[in-house]
Design a protein that fits this description.
Length: 294
């Protein structure tokens, strides 16, 4: 079994806590979403290390014991992209693979379009391309209804109170209620996420990702502006996602040149944690097919 070690890394003027498996300057960087942490990639780090990558997942700004800058603007997408680029640099990466889920996937889409650093490949899980989402949120009333929480998170202080009440019960339920296979989330897993949200200032920092996104958004990558991504891109999507409709997996031809889609029936939004065997099987097969297993 590949050992996963934890340490602190300085990058972009902040401190990030990272989980790391493998070594070398070929770096596969994992970006988690809301309300997750680096822990969400516990099943994938050993696989990437086995395939020759130095696999690193980090608690992004505002999460866990990483730095928690104050103010909404600190969580603008430009800052989040800069963090990922700086972590790659701090690890001495010469070849880079970006693997991301949920909010981390939104950062990864933007990172690839802006070419913040050169990438060998991009893996996205259960978050659509910004242009695809923008098109759907306008044209699809069902998706607007599913996205109600984005608007709720714009309210001052109330979302933080709801998320942290009764020992951050709502954080644990975000996983246990949405998951199809609830056995995949142990009480220890749920408690990890609850305790993270209860750290001083953490709930506000986590919600500030949404506030910054709504204020400054992803408009520069709208349907008529998004540059084409020309690196191999894999999307893995749990079909039972209650927050994002399955139609968001369609219409990628104008935006991604080399696009592979793998949809997993009977799996929720928390795809890499709920179905790690299926995710890892598809991830390994794609990496080998694209010459990215080193």
């Amino acid at each position: 079994m590949t050992e996963i070690t934890t340490r602190t890394l300085e990058a972009n003027g902040l401190s990030f806590v990272i989980d790391e498996a493998g070594d070398g300057d070929n770096v596969a960087l994992f970006l988690h979403g809301f309300p997750e942490s680096k822990h969400s990639w516990r099943h994938q780090l050993p696989l990437l290390a086995k395939l020759g990558w130095r696999a690193v997942a980090f608690d992004q700004r505002g999460y866990g014991d990483s730095s928690r800058p104050k103010g909404v603007k600190a969580y603008d997408i430009e800052n989040l992209m800069a963090d990922a680029g700086a972590v790659f640099d701090a690890l001495g990466a010469k070849r880079r693979l970006l693997i991301a889920h949920d909010w981390g996937a939104a950062v990864a889409w933007a990172f690839a379009m802006d070419r913040v650093r050169d990438l060998e490949g991009l893996v996205i899980m259960n978050v659509p391309h910004p242009a695809v989402f923008a098109r759907n949120i306008v044209a699809n009333p069902a998706q607007r209804k599913k996205s109600w929480y984005i608007f709720f998170f714009q309210i001052p202080w109330l979302p933080e109170w709801v998320l942290t009440a009764r020992g951050a019960e709502a954080i644990g339920r975000a996983f246990s209620d949405m998951a199809v296979d609830k056995s995949r989330f142990s009480e220890a897993d749920l408690d990890h996420y609850r305790q993270n949200a209860l750290k001083p200032g953490a709930a506000t920092a986590m919600v500030n990702w949404y506030r910054a996104g709504a204020r400054n958004g992803m408009r520069k990558w709208a349907p008529d502006k998004a540059p084409v991504i020309d690196i191999p891109t894999l999307m893995i999507w749990g079909e039972e996602d209650t927050a994002l409709g399955i139609e968001l997996t369609e219409g990628y031809e104008p935006y991604v040149k080399d696009f592979t889609l793998n949809r997993l029936p009977g799996v929720s939004h928390w795809v890499q944690q709920e179905a790690p065997e299926a995710v890892n099987e598809r991830l390994e097969a794609w990496l080998k097919a694209k010459g990215l297993a080193l």
